[in-house]
Write a structure and sequence with these properties.
seven-stranded mixed β-sheet; mainly beta; 478 residues; 3 domains; 5 helices; Immunoglobulin-like; 33 strands; binds copper (II) ion; 40% strand; globular; binds CU-O-CU linkage; single chain
């Protein structure tokens, strides 16, 4: 157990912490003292009730950070050191993982691998430097498929050292829920059907924890919109009708500004996109934002509702904004070590056996254990894991991920950011830096990075049901 740094909390925080004990749960947005070198926050994970479907229906019992879904947006500046005290008031153990942030291994929040889970009533303090600017998020890394589906997630925004010129900086945390008629969360987590197919796709899509209404805008505005896919399994494919959204960052990291292919922003679970939205529509009009990812299942997410106000400015020759690069090590592609990583399993995948607990195991036994997926032939289970790959520190490395399944997989590597350098043998146009890469069925994707962060790092599918169904492993950097 890490000690609670209560001596470092100021008096106001302690008073608030005391006061919050009386309520079901509460969060402290510890306003960091300006002279303080460390920005402190407190997160309380606890059950709460939320009006997800709106006033016309019952509230939903959820688990949340700070009595709200999503949890509080933690906001710091690049180069800041952040300290987050996490108190667990849930009925079970938990952890917090800082998705996409290059943190020291002990701060990565992976239960049983980088830390002992935080027991009910216990507190754990995370502390690390925010090396990269960008849009990140946090969520549990323990029983994730149930804990995230119940509402435990929030945004972590690291501002650039110099702010960019936009009228508004907005975060949309996208997610979905599987609700029953009485608006309660269906508790069929990790059922074999979800595990073997495309995961727990919910029936109620929310933006910032609510069924979205209109998003009010004004003609001539320029908005930085930070999209975060916090869903367990749903892939979003957002189209802004009548607008051209410019993607300026992916997974937090700057990318050459571009309109996405087919004007659709595709975000697998855990992925983020920062887009520059120039509001060139007509005052008084509405424009739909639709999610068209799943064929024949297109739906309207919300309307961009223009006020009648006159155009704020003429955007005719507004230039795209280029964000400054993050300090990432450039992989040496020529001298990189190469490895193949084979993803197998799932329904219609033809997996007949896999290694479980070190033994060749048939499908029936695997299914008994809830396992339907494998990485390099191993269906991972439990927490005592041997790494499937060991890399020398500072080694450049090229991994070819081979999706030998009939399903999409957003594959995530902890502790590092990689370049996506090729898809199906073709070099990518922008070699995007990402921490999670969406793979189409049967696709081969090549990624490259420098293994510069020592420790045991999770590599897994971020469709959380696939992860719990065996699609994870460890990459060790020594
Ligand atoms: Cu978003 Cu292994 O995590
Ligand atoms: Cu997957």
């Amino acid at each position: 157990m890490t000690p609670i740094y209560s001596s470092m909390l100021d008096r106001r925080e302690i008073l608030l912490a005391g006061a919050s004990l009386a309520t079901t749960a509460s969060v402290l947005r510890a306003a960091p003292a300006p002279e303080s070198p460390i920005k402190q926050f407190k997160l309380i994970a606890a059950p709460s009730r939320q009006s997800i479907i709106g006033a016309h229906g019952p509230d939903t019992d959820v688990w949340s950070y700070g009595s709200n879904v999503p949890g509080p947006e933690l906001r710091v500046r690049q180069g800041d050191r952040i300290q987050v005290q996490v108190e667990n008031r849930l009925p079970e153990e938990t952890t917090v993982h800082w998705h996409g942030l290059r943190v020291p291994n002990a701060m990565d929040g992976v239960a049983h691998i980088t830390q002992k889970p935080i027991g009910p009533g216990e507190t754990f303090t995370y502390e690390f430097d925010c090396l990269d600017a960008g849009t990140f998020w946090y969520h549990p890394h323990h029983h994730s498929s149930a804990q995230v589906a119940r509402g435990l997630y929030g945004a972590l925004i690291v501002d650039e050292r110099n702010p960019i010129a936009v009228d508004r900086d907005i975060t949309w945390v996208l997610s979905d829920w599987r609700l029953q008629k009485d608006a309660s969360i269906k508790n069929d987590f990790n059922n074999l059907h979800d595990v073997g197919h495309n995961g727990r796709i919910g029936n109620t899509v929310t933006v910032n924890g609510r069924i979205p209404g209109n998003f009010d805008v004004r003609a001539g505005e320029r908005i930085r919109l930070r999209l975060i896919n916090a869903a367990n399994a749903r892939i979003f494919g957002l189209e802004f009708e009548g607008h051209t959204a410019q993607v300026i960052a992916i997974d937090g990291h700057p990318v050459e500004p571009h309109a996405p292919a087919n004007n659709r922003i595709v975000l697998g679970p855990a992925m983020r996109a920062d887009i520059l939205l120039d509001l060139r529509g007509q005052p008084g009009k509405r424009y739909r934002v639709v999610d068209a990812f799943y064929r024949h299942r297109e739906y309207k997410l919300l309307d961009l509702a223009y006020s009648d106000a006159a155009q704020l400015r003429d955007l005719a020759d507004a230039k795209p904004i280029r964000l400054p690069a993050n300090p990432l090590s450039e992989p040496d592609l020529e001298n990189a070590e190469r490895h193949d990583i084979m993803l197998g399993g799932g329904m219609m995948g033809g997996m007949i056996s896999a290694i479980m607990d070190g033994q060749r195991t048939n499908m029936r036994t695997l299914m008994h254990n809830g396992l339907l997926w494998s990485i390099n032939g191993v269906a991972a289970k439990g927490h005592i894991l041997d790494p499937f790959l060991t890399l020398k520190r500072n080694q450049s490395c090229r991994l070819t991920l081979i999706n030998d399944t009939a399903w999409h997989h957003p594959m995530h590597l902890h502790g590092h950011v990689f370049r996506v350098i090729a898809r199906n043998g073709q070099p990518t146009r922008r070699s995007e830096w990402q921490d999670t890469v969406m793979m189409d069925p049967r696709e081969r994707v090549e990624i490259a990075f420098v293994a510069d962060n020592p420790g045991d790092w999770m590599f897994h599918c971020h469709i959380l049901e696939h992860q719990s169904g065996g699609m994870f492993g460890l990459i060790r950097v020594i």
